[in-house]
């Protein structure tokens, strides 16, 4: 089996309605012209990433405007849509950075709340304080496309190898991370992290970024990419709006795992991963 994945490196600027229309148009192109069966949007895809604007743009799931747009697009075009992330407000008023996944019938098949919130302070380059806005998620999130089990993370989740390893131990063959990564750390770590998560766990890894907007509060690095289980970058975008398409040749998984059987060679007498939830 082959999964054709399309990463929509979306330009995120202007009113939410305009951004959603652009996203739906690109989902259509990804399915109808690129023949993708999994389409991925970036983190904070329905509004520019700005801590000051998150609360005012929070929505309920699945009743909110963004959920309805994604559900209708998935159903209308008959494709799995990994809806990047947007701000969710729950019934208690808490805010989460949440990724939704919609099946080809328009049904909500998964919802991932960002587990690792980004608090970082790089003098004169970057200050982010997500814990002042969001509540942490506390669960792993998986879904299937055919027989392929897929694990979800959002941006900062990619920096924690134990989290990815737990997904691999749970049988995932593909990890998807919608992300807004700044240019400074993107240049240093973006490709490195994707390749590390892939080669450590012998899985496919996809990072989906927004397009770069030099006027944004947080300027995204771009360069959405897909890495195979050998750690090879099989597709990578530029910094502009585009659709990054890659074919995931699933027979690569048993080849890599049988030829370099590191998961069978782990020393459980010395160390082990404990998945607590």
UniProtKB/TrEMBL annotation:
GO terms for molecular function: omega-amidase activity. Keywords: Hydrolase. The keyword tRNA processing does not apply. SUPFAM superfamilies: Carbon-nitrogen hydrolase (SSF56317). The keyword Hydrolase applies. It catalyses: 2-oxoglutaramate + H2O = 2-oxoglutarate + NH4(+); 2-oxosuccinamate + H2O = oxaloacetate + NH4(+). This is omega-amidase. It comes from Culex pipiens pipiens (Northern house mosquito).
């Amino acid at each position: 089996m082959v999964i054709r994945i399309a990463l929509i490196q979306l330009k995120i600027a202007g009113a939410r309605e305009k951004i959603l229309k652009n996203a739906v148009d690109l989902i259509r192109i990804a399915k109808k012209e690129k023949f993708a069966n999994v389409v991925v949007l970036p983190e904070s895809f329905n509004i520019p990433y700005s801590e000051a604007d998150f609360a005012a743009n929070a929505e309920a799931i699945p009743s909110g405007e963004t959920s309805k747009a994604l559900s209708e697009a998935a159903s209308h075009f008959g494709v799995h849509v990994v809806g990047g992330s947007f701000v969710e407000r729950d019934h208690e008023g808490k805010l989460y950075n949440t990724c939704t996944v919609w099946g080809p019938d328009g049904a909500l098949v998964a919802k991932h709340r960002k587990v690792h919130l980004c608090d970082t302070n790089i003098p004169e380059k970057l200050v982010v304080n997500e814990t002042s806005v969001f509540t942490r998620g506390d669960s792993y999130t998986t879904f299937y496309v055919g027989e392929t089990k897929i694990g979800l993370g959002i941006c900062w989740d990619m920096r924690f190898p134990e989290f990815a390893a737990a997904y691999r131990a749970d049988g995932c063959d593909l990890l998807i991370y919608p992300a807004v990564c700044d240019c400074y750390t993107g240049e240093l770590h973006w490709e490195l992290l994707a390749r590390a998560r892939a080669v450590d766990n012998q899985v496919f890894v996809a990072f989906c970024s927004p397009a770069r907007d030099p006027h944004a509060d947080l300027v995204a690095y771009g360069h959405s990419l897909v890495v195979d289980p050998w750690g090879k970058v099989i597709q990578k975008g530029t910094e502009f709006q585009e659709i990054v398409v890659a074919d995931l040749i699933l027979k690569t998984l048993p080849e890599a795992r049988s030829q370099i059987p590191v998961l069978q060679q782990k020393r459980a007498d010395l160390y082990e991963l404990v998945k607590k939830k």
